[in-house]
Amino acid sequence: MGEPESSTREDASVCFLPKQSVYEALANKGPLGLELVRHLAVLCERTGARFAGVVEKLVIARVAELLLELHEMNGVASERRLMVRLELKRDELATMIGTTTETFVRELKKLEKAGVIAIQRRSVHILDVEALRDMASVPERENPP
Fold this sequence. Notes:
The chain is an alpha+beta fold. Helix content is 57%, strand content 11%. The protein has five helices and four strands, in the order H-H-E-E-H-H-E-E-H. It has helices at residues 19-28, 30-74, 90-96, 101-113, 129-136, and strands spanning 76-78, 81-85, 117-120, 123-126. The protein has a four-stranded antiparallel β-sheet. A hairpin with a 2-residue loop joins strand 3 (117-120) and strand 4. The two termini are 22 Å apart. 14% of the residues are buried.
């Protein structure tokens, strides 16, 4: 078997610690073991925060893209805005983009708060088409080389 291949999105340093050394440090060297656990907790927290940010961006991009697609399929232009009739239930719309109903609704509310859309009963008015297009163009993930 060859070595596993991996890549990172930014420059990174990798350190390998043998499992036995980590166990010994935790068991025999109180302050060192405690510091190691603290350091790992900080790394986990940072990684979790970074991952959460990526996930939110991806969902909002998918919501924006869905709204634009729905407008193309059955939208109506009125005054200076575009209107999308929501003929499907919110849980069905969420399923279409691979997210939960709660997340879908939360992202819609973020778009509304930002002034990009206005929600009225069973319709969405697109107030800023360019902003919505910009959000929809966020790539889901970069393909590794």
